[in-house]
Design a protein that fits this description.
Helix Hairpins; EC 3.6.1.31; 18 strands; alpha/beta; eight-stranded parallel barrel; globular; about 400 residues; Ubiquitin-like (UB roll); PRib-ATP_PPHydrolase-like
Length: about 400
Amino acid sequence: MLIPSIDLMNGKAVQLKQGKNKVLERDDVFELLEEFSIYGEVAIIDLDAALGHGNNKDLIKQLLNVRPCRVGGGIRDLDTAKEYIKAGATKIIIGTNCRQDWVKNISKESLIFAIDAKGDYWSTQGWKNTEGEKVLDLIPELAQNCSEFLYTQVEKEGLLQGLDRERIEQVVKTSPVPVTVAGGITTLDDIDWFTKLGANGQIGMSIYTGKLKLVDCFLTQVDFVKAPLVPTIVQDVDTNKVLMMAYSNADSLTKALTTRKGTYWSRSRKELWEKGLTSGNQQELISADVDCDGDTILFRVKQLGNACHFDRYSCFASQVKGFDLNRLTSLLTKRKTESSEASYSAKLFQSAELRAEKIREEAEELIEAQDYDEVRWEAADLIFFALTDALAKGVDIKAINDELRSRFNDN
């Protein structure tokens, strides 16, 4: 997986050489996030917080409101870590403080430990100190409390001089959790190499300078040599249901990534095929991913209308939208803007007093309920009215889920 990086300093995206000298600066951070997010999970790094010169916390929260991202840089306490998870961060990147006791209060699924290295040794405190511990000796201990490592050879960072392949290979083979490589990614061959090794790559300087293009980087991860037509699974980004399976070649994948539309190779017509040009059931491509062997692609799309040519939601009969709290949230959000007296939900949104009355009533009834069916009924009532009240106050189910996730710890 490619992980484009947005390194923030004074509200702008920057690239530093050797973590010190600023060589690039851009202020279009939201445009960068939109551009980068189709190719992989974006990493947002707060350099100001890492260096102890303030922080970009408010900006990061705004970016997380647009796209879920991994977040790192200057996260030195539990409150800050949980604050970012609540805001929608997929994972938190922690460096020197990864051995602190407070870190164990966060689910390991949400944690990436950043291991910076000078040669074989662990570099800490923003590369100021070089510890006596070797990185390979650290890995078995640290891997017990995280789901991923971010490994950076600091002597390669920002120099565009290639990867320290020997040490990276040792780290990847030693680590029981996935490893993301950073620092020195310079050529498409670098990407091909770490992909075949089973690692991810966090990429910055080479794409900001134009030395590499993200679309080319993505295509490099796909093994078109093994199969010129690669199966492409298409998933509804809102429901996570599988909509269809099509085929991609290098040309169709390039067009899909650059136009952000569901575009494939038609085996019957032997030509590029943009989904929905005839039917109107088009697909907006939100993100793309490649499996570990490089021979299957995953598209996550926003589907307009139905995906199947039989005018069904999905080409797979078992894949139906179904019901969950996300779908209920969508309906209630629609009701929030309505003024119809026929809609009870609309009436609820118009009256804070009515919502409060119903929540108190249903909470009491749930407390008193004993029978299975009665408890189920009253719990559903309470959840419905609580969600309606939260939506009326600007809090949706995703925000509630993120709040619960920030408290979750199954370690």
